[in-house]
Design brief:
There is one protein chain. The chain is an alpha/beta fold. The chain has a single domain, classed as Rossmann fold. The protein contains seven helices and nine strands; from the N terminus they run ααβαβαββββαβαβαβ. Strands 3-4-5-2-1-6-7-9-8 form a nine-stranded mixed sheet, sandwiched between helices. The two termini are about 30 Å apart.
Length: about 220
């Protein structure tokens, strides 16, 4: 999937993937990570997610990365922030209230960018990528994260032929295959959520399951 796909979605405001409320599974399962209040949390492909505000309210420093400058500027503007803007390598950096978003390509991130990260919140990254990109995404993510980093991963699972992604279906078996040998994998919960996601039913889905994982890197 080309970068232009996501940039054009934001330009046209075709952002049905954006949630205007905090993801309920984040609030329900975050304590499973057992993080210190001041731990830094990385949110890949963050868009203008409200979840970053919730993480900040828990005492965490938040680091996001997002390709679209429209999304980044909207996040700060819509939440009443006047961010400080700086240049950082290949990224334009926006920061306010201990929330920093690097505007640029996820694959340009290096170890130094994530050296003090304690956890990752992945609600919209893995499921945003087609199958051929998911292995590359995981490989790069694991190459730049510190050892023992914990990841709260949320994934959708459905019959892929019923609906073209994104979001794409990512099964439990695929998560295990992607992270096997690289992290301990714990399935925290499974939820049938089609009734709460009418837009997916309208797109043709007959069933929808959301899986919540706790991964701990080795």
């Amino acid at each position: 999937m080309e970068k232009s796909f996501w940039l054009e979605r934001w330009e046209r405001q075709e952002i049905g993937f954006h949630q205007d409320e905090i993801n309920p599974f984040l609030a329900q399962h975050w304590q499973e990570l057992q993080l210190a209040r001041n731990a830094k949390v990385f949110v890949p492909l963050c868009g203008k997610s409200m979840d970053m505000l919730w993480l900040r309210k828990q005492g965490h420093t938040v680091l996001g990365v997002e390709l679209s400058s429209i999304a980044v500027q909207a996040f700060f503007r819509e939440n009443g922030y006047m961010p400080i803007q700086t240049e950082k390598g290949n990224f334009e950096c926006f920061e306010a209230d201990n929330i920093r978003i690097l505007c640029g390509d996820f694959f340009d991130l290096g170890k130094d960018d994530l050296k003090d990260v304690g956890a990752v919140y992945d609600r919209a990254s893995l499921v945003a990528l087609p199958p051929e990109m998911r292995e590359r995404y995981v490989r790069h993510l694991l190459s730049i994260l510190p050892p023992a980093t914990r990841i709260l991963l949320l994934s959708f699972d459905y019959h892929q032929p019923e609906m073209p992604g994104p979001p794409f279906a990512v099964s439990i078996e695929e998560v295990e295959s992607l992270y096997q040998g690289r992290a301990s994998i714990r399935l925290l919960a499974q939820h049938d959520t089609l009734d709460k996601n009418s837009r997916f039913r309208e797109r043709g889905l007959s069933q929808l399951q959301e899986n919540i994982f706790l991964l701990t890197l080795k």
